[in-house]
Amino acid sequence: MTKNCEICPFSNNPAFVAPSKQECETVNLHRIGEMQVEAGCEILAEGSDPRRFFTLLEGQAMRYHTLEDGRRQVLNFLFPGDLIGLEPIMLGETSHAVEALSPVSLCVFDRTQIWQMFAKMPERAFMLTWQVAREEHFLGQALISVGQRSARESLAWAFVSLWDRGQQSGMVEDGKMPFPVRQQDLADALGLSLVHTNKTLSRLRSEDLVVWRDGVLQLPDRDALARVGLVDSTVIKKRFYL
Amino acid sequence: MTKNCEICPFSNNPAFVAPSKQECETVNLHRIGEMQVEAGCEILAEGSDPRRFFTLLEGQAMRYHTLEDGRRQVLNFLFPGDLIGLEPIMLGETSHAVEALSPVSLCVFDRTQIWQMFAKMPERAFMLTWQVAREEHFLGQALISVGQRSARESLAWAFVSLWDRGQQSGMVEDGKMPFPVRQQDLADALGLSLVHTNKTLSRLRSEDLVVWRDGVLQLPDRDALARVGLVDSTVIKKRFYL
DNA sequence: CGTCTAATTGAGCCCGTTCAAGCAATGTGG
DNA sequence: CCACATTGCTTGAACGGGCTCAATTAGACG
């Protein structure tokens, strides 16, 4: 295995059940290889035939769907350790696109690997389902935000959630986290217009709740911002249990 | 197995891979039993300890989350064949409630059954993951709607989506489908106010696009409504493939 | 016949939208 | 080295979709 494999759900992570020697070999068998992608490139294209899926090893990405008339909804932001392209394989149709937000490195698997996992590596398969369930949870949270929260609350919620996700995946250093996103992307994630996002954001900035410059995010008072965003304190354990 | 078991993902469904004799026995072993719930009752309580999960055999239900201040977001509506309470077990925390919309019958499983499935019945485990992935897909679609569509488009989208779901689960008869929901529930699902939902709905009614009376829904022109709601024609196959 | 819940309709306001202009940083070609 | 285009951020002004408040109606139930 190469660099960063410790965050791959199919690899050996202390947070997860350790794979056996045999499992490792089987994984390596179906592991097509690693892939580097530049910022701004499409990792997954809307409507494409689902053949492979990926583990995001380094960098950040964005998953979105575009309506016929051009309106776009960002579904979520992806962090190291996240899976990409599993849903399309399960459902047989790629209904969203994934774009790299920074230089990204991916671990590439063939779709046949999925069944191999279920057949021969139940712990890996369980792990995989756990990831899908977690993503479902995040989508639900986003839906709550877009549906019920005000613009100010939504922004606050988004920053806190992203911050917490960033910490879980080890992207926060010195109280700073890379967040290479345009305001337009954030607006599309929250169902707001660019203009209003900007104005609401500048208010949060003037209150010293958010510092976001040059693609780097800082939250001087994460808990205060969480209160603004009505973020419930539910913590998702990294470790799943049976 | 008792009535309606053919729709249970853990049972023998022609759309799915048939379970072996041994699988059937193992499922029955962990199947706690059947449960009947009246309309309006809570099947799953927010914050409860996740111990069991269910298959919805008959009737309809609603999954929602409530914010501290009372605002409520309906996450989705549940149809026969859907799983209930799997996400909480996987993630260790029940962050949403599920309420019966009609008299409901459920098949009850113990949470230990999940691991049994991964360990001994890979086809069932795969099936289960497929269900989670499908639910993730629907949540994504809902997020797109709430985030990008206008009230009119949202309503149209919702009716068409529910209609299609209803047809897949065999709830449509004579061009009619039971839809035992208050306007308030629909409003909370779409992030709209009750008043605006009502006014938009009455417009759709006057255009003969929607007929919804006494808990029964009819769509005289499903395709026209789909055009109003910008529903993409992507069809999720009932049959998954490997 | 009073009470309760759900649907309906009107009036007025506001949050978030669209339109529009300006600015700063970066890049590109002559 | 400058002219010019491009991309993203910022800000002002005005409109409007959807909100809140409020009152009425209709049906179900005791």
UniProtKB/TrEMBL annotation, chains A, B:
Please tell me whether the keyword Transcription is annotated for this protein: yes
Q: Which Pfam families match?
A: cNMP_binding, HTH_Crp_2
Gene Ontology cellular component annotations, sorted alphabetically: cytosol
Which parts of the sequence belong to the HTH crp-type domain? Answer: 149-223
Keywords for the protein's UniProt record, in alphabetical order: DNA-binding, Transcription, Transcription regulation
User: Where on the tree of life does the source sit, at the highest rank?
Assistant: Bacteria
Task: Please list every transmembrane segment annotated in the UniProt record, as residue ranges.
Answer: none
Q: Provide any one GO MF term from the record.
A: DNA-binding transcription factor activity
| PANTHER family cross-referenced by the UniProt entry | CRP FAMILY TRANSCRIPTIONAL REGULATORY PROTEIN (PTHR24567), DNA-BINDING TRANSCRIPTIONAL DUAL REGULATOR CRP (PTHR24567:SF68)
What protein name applies here? HTH crp-type domain-containing protein
